[in-house]
Amino acid sequence: MLNDIKIGTRLTALLTMLLAMLLLAGGMGIYMLADANSKMESLYKDHLIGVDAIHRVDTLNMKIRTDLAGAYVTPEAADKKLADIEGDIDEIGKDWDVFMATHANPEQVELTNKVVAARKKYREEAVAPAISAIKSGDMAQLKKIIVRDVRPLYEGLSAAISALLEAEFKDSKKTFDDSAASYHTFRGVLIAMIGCGALLSVLLGLSIIRGINRSVTELRGAMVKMSADGDLSARARVYSQDEIGQSATAFNGLIEGFANIIRKVLANADTVSSTAAQLSASSLQIAQGSQAQSEAAASTAAAVEQITVSISSVAANTA
């Protein structure tokens, strides 16, 4: 079927298919990059920023606990420790707002609520009373609060934060795994498309080359045979209806026309030869008839001469 399509059309189809495959592969590649970039951006904005904020909250809570103990151990540095604690509380509020602005799934919402409750309890029942004790200079009360409230409430808050961090890490890993799976899927599809496109291009290209070579070889062979032995009965086999196949058909028609002309010339030559033979025979008959007439005339002249001699002799004897 392809052999009946023009070569130009087949080449155009091949180039069009290659261009389409190139555009499709490029489009899928761009889409893959955009999708990967979107997932990495989501991973950063929705998870990594939140994880970093939670980690800073946990670190600052630990620092507050350490500063409270430092204020008890070194009362002369209590004012500085108090200023650091108040600054850390402000930073914790800012970091917590950053975390709350990130995406959260239902599991994270539940864990977040637990952290909020533990943080509130730690701040109101441990940190705030300890700050009041520092401001009042009551170190005994501060020690009591540190031992009775700060340590256990911090441990509860730290455990809640650790659970939330673990959920964040788990969700981050899921997002990364989904991105990797999507990438591998698209890569497989892209490789398959490129492979199929390359295979189809090779098959179509080989089909075009094979068709052209076969038709050209057949046409050249017929020409070489006629040139070598002058055999006008040779014909080029027509394999297709493309430009070369049409050329072979036209060539066969041309040679058939030449052969017909030569057959007519040979037939006319036979007719002329036969007519010439007939004319030659007629000329021979005419020549033979002329010779017979000449001989008859010579015989008649001899007879007339004898008669004349006889008459002369008779005349002489009479006288």
TrEMBL record:
Which keywords fit this entry according to its UniProt record? Cell membrane, Membrane, Methylation, Transducer, Transmembrane, Transmembrane helix
What's any one GO cellular component for it?
plasma membrane
Q: Where are the transmembrane segments?
A: 12-34, 189-209
Protein's UniProt keywords contain Membrane = yes
Example GO molecular function term? transmembrane signaling receptor activity
What are the GO BP annotations of this UniProt entry?
chemotaxis; signal transduction
Q: Where is the HAMP domain?
A: 210-263
SMART domains named among the record's database cross-references: HAMP
> Where in the cell is the protein located?
Cell membrane
* Annotated PROSITE patterns: HAMP
Q: Which Pfam families match?
A: HAMP (PF00672), TarH (PF02203)
Check the record and name the InterPro entries matching this protein.
Chemotax_Me-accpt_rcpt, HAMP_dom, Tar_rcpt_lig-bd
- Family to which the UniProt record says this protein belongs: Belongs to the methyl-accepting chemotaxis (MCP) protein family.
Which protein, by its recorded name, is this?
Methyl-accepting chemotaxis sensory transducer
Provenance organism: Candidatus Gallionella acididurans
